[in-house]
What we know:
Elements: H1 7-11, E1 15-26, E2 29-40, E3 44-48, H2 55-62, E4 72-75, E5 78-79, H3 87-93, E6 94-97, H4 109-119, H5 125-138, H6 154-166, E7 172-176, H7 184-199, E8 203-207, H8 211-217, E9 220-225, E10 228-233, H9 235-240, H10 245-254
The structure holds adenosine-5'-diphosphate and magnesium ion (MG).
Adenosine-5'-diphosphate is lined by residues 26, 29, 31, 49, 51-57.
Amino acid sequence: xxxxxxxxxxxxxxxxxxxxxxxxxxxxxxxxxxxxxxxxxxxxxxxxxxxxxxxxxxxxxxxxxxxxxxxxxxxxxxxxxxxxxxxxxxxxxxxxxxxxxxxxxxxxxxxxxxxxxxxxxxxxxxxxxxxxxxxxxxxxxxxxxxxxxxxxxxxxxxxxxxxxxxxxxxxxxxxxxxxxxxxxxxxxxxxxxxxxxxxxxxxxxxxxxxxxxxxxxxxxxxxxxxxxxxxxxxxxxxxxxxxxxxxxxxxxxxx
Length: 255
Ligand code: ADP
Ligand code: MG
């Protein structure tokens, strides 16, 4: 599609994720309650909230790791209702980085990053390795290509996991507490990579309790509590004039 064929989209970036009245249960547990939330192309949405409030479940729905119950969830123009249309294609376009890096221990850093681009995207080894090396440069560890995950620090492993997700040229990146398992001195190096990605215009949904990062980088912050979005606001208002008592209570605990 050429730019001129869609003049309306140029004014306002396109919605790439849209939850409309989404509900989800795990058995008797009502884990997502009437979620209405949208993310536009190039936006950074931070999701925070107490443990068990449904943050992971919410982001896992976006790449189809969890099916929704009632409501509508649209991701990159695909409607993800109970049945999954084309998960493989969706997951290639929606990258995800978890708290525990989930790298393949038996593969080198390069092997971890090149696997999916070769298998799913059909890149040649040389192309995939060239791209992987450029991504390692981007996340600041070009010298680690030949190492195995066990030889890396937690912060370095997480940066490999980010490079691995980026190797698929995702349109959206999901991060689920990417720094929660890291020692304090490694948190910054990972947040710096996320900050660069955001500045480069990546659309991101980030579950994190790093409120300094949220304040600097997020376009909007949503607070989940017992499966409900109790506050959604720009960072300025979220921190200075939260509307909901639960936001005040949450902030008073973590700030
Ligand atoms: P958060 O990421 O905010 O800590 P989660 O989305 O992981 O919250 O979990 C929300 C609730 O759903 C928790 O009570 C959790 O125990 C429950 N839960 C998460 N995944 C499952 C599952 N696969 N089966 C049953 N219950 C689950
Ligand atoms: Mg979680």
